[in-house]
UniProtKB/TrEMBL annotation:
Protein family per UniProt: Belongs to the short-chain dehydrogenases/reductases (SDR) family.
GO terms (BP aspect): monocarboxylic acid metabolic process
Membrane-spanning residues: none
Keywords (A to Z) from UniProt: Oxidoreductase
UniProt entry tagged with the keyword Glycoprotein: no
Species for this entry: Sulfolobus acidocaldarius (strain ATCC 33909 / DSM 639 / JCM 8929 / NBRC 15157 / NCIMB 11770)
PROSITE patterns associated with the record: ADH_SHORT
Official protein name in the record: Short chain dehydrogenase
Domain of life: Archaea
Entry's Gene Ontology molecular function annotations: oxidoreductase activity
């Protein structure tokens, strides 16, 4: 059995990805800062009849939390490495740049960029040892620039560079590293956006609707499979045709 860590696994894309991977027979370790992560993992276990699904507290911004999370995952499941990492945890702290605070900048950079660094460092040695690995970084179409998101765009662009560099460094160990670039997806992250903003985006999406989180999970499931063994360093847009 292969094991996957899904950060931000308790909500939105992370949750549907945990269900998808568990239903395909992967062991899944769902990590989230939200306090209900163990209940969420229980619901995935029940829905998929897969006992190898656990939920653990995780703050991806904090190295010690990532290290404790990884060690607890290994000991709880009786494994010595994890094969797949989905760096998915995310937040928005939108503001026009002239009004953006240092806290808003720091929080977003920490969750997305430090988070990907902290978690990838936990898993990479085990992947190298076993000469197999899959790392998926969740970017966003906003990496190309979006008003009110200087922090988020910078972080998501940073993840593209991180992805392409790791793909070059880790390819020889049979580890692929890819970025997913979602467009406008219907999750708790986008739910609070004002109707005016939603309407503005919808008018620019050729598909004429928001994406469903399952439509992101489907491409993740393919990228972590053996079938995707020659895809690495790619940024894959899943946007219903929308582009910035
Ligand atoms: P979501 O429903 O808000 O889920 C994100 C999860 O990450 C939440 O459970 C959140 O917990 C958790 N999280 C936040 N900070 C964390 C931390 N420090 N450590 C661990 N977990 C943390 O969002 P989503 O829409 O599924 O987004 C998933 C990923 O896709 C994000 O990276 C996002 O940037 C990216 N994305 C989303 C869209 C979209 O349209 N939805 C588009 C492009 C890219 P709390 O709820 O407690 O904060």
């Amino acid at each position: 059995m292969r094991y996957a860590i899904v950060t931000g696994g308790g909500s939105g894309i992370g949750y549907t990805t945990s269900i998808k991977l568990a239903s395909l027979g992967y062991g899944v370790i769902m990590g989230d800062i939200a306090p209900n992560i163990e209940e969420k993992a229980k619901s995935v276990r029940e829905a998929t009849k897969n006992e190898k699904v656990i939920g653990l507290h995780l703050d991806v911004t904090d190295w010690d939390s990532c290290n404790a999370f990884y060690n607890k995952a290994l000991s709880s499941l009786g494994i010595d490495h994890v094969d797949i990492l989905i760096n998915n945890a995310g937040i928005l702290r939108d503001a026009l740049f002239v009004k953006m605070t240092r806290e808003q900048w720091d929080q977003v950079i920490k969750v997305h960029l430090y988070g990907a660094f902290n978690m990838t460092k936990q898993v990479v040695e085990g992947m190298i040892k076993y000469q197999w690995g899959r790392i998926i970084n969740m970017s966003s179409i906003s990496w190309k620039g979006n008003v009110g998101q200087a922090n988020y765009s910078a972080a998501k662009a940073g993840l593209i560079g991180f992805t392409k560099t790791l793909a070059k460094e880790l390819g020889k160990y049979n580890i692929t590293v890819n970025a997913i670039v979602p467009g406008f997806i219907d999750t708790p992250m986008t739910a609070p956006l004002p109707d005016k903003i939603k309407k503005m985006f919808l008018e620019r999406i050729p598909a004429g609707r928001m994406g469903r989180p399952e439509e992101i999970s489907n491409i993740i499931a393919f990228l972590v499979s053996d079938e995707a063994s020659y895809i690495s360093g790619a940024e894959i847009e899943v946007t219903g045709g929308f582009s910035q």
